[in-house]
Amino acid sequence: MPVFALTGAAPVLGAAEGVLKRFEERMTTRVMAYSGERQRDLMSGQIRFAAATADLAAARLLLEETVRDVATGRTLDMTDRARARLVAAHVAATARRVVNELCSAAGASAQFTSSPFQRAQRDVNTISGHVVFDPDAAYALYGRIGLGLDPGPVVLV
């Protein structure tokens, strides 16, 4: 389960990083309707770009660190397994949030079927909807195991 969860989170993160790159490119040329201002000159766009950059960089570091830990070949105890699930869910949730925020900030035309934004958004939302990426369940699972409680009869660890 840890390997499944972590390898499933990787493409979600990669798609989010791709959306961030496209958002950066779009900001340099996009002119806002009605005001005529370039989006790159607006503080709101600058903040969204910077926050997304920081959030995705942190998610990548967390994912890579956890993959290294799991790949050592040692036997994983329940805490290690729950942590991997926690990280996978957290990374997927972060990527999903960032993608949805950037797609919203990219404007309504980003939702045209010809736009790569809408395709990435749909893919990220679909993949991160898998039960293994449910943040509430993953956070509760890690909390229970980390605090010495029984995880329950049916858990994905």
How would you sum up this structure, described in words?
The chain is mainly α and 157 residues long. The protein is elongated. 69% of the residues lie in helices and 0% in strands. It has one domain: Butyryl-CoA Dehydrogenase, subunit A, domain 3, CATH 1.20.140.10.
What's the short version?
By secondary structure, the protein is mainly α. The protein has helices at residues 2-29, 43-70, 78-105, 116-127, 135-146.
Approximately what portion of the residues adopt beta-strand conformation?
under 5%
Largest beta-sheet details: none
User: SSE string, helix = H, strand = E?
Assistant: HHHHH
Mean pLDDT comes to 92
| Number of E strands | 0
Runs in which pLDDT lies below 50 for 5 or more consecutive residues are none
Q: Considering the protein shown, what is the CATH homologous superfamily?
A: Butyryl-CoA Dehydrogenase, subunit A, domain 3
Share of helical residues: 55-70%
List descriptors.
157 residues, mainly alpha, Butyryl-CoA Dehydrogenase, subunit A, domain 3, 5 helices
Task: Describe the secondary-structure layout.
Elements: H1 2-29, H2 43-70, H3 78-105, H4 116-127, H5 135-146
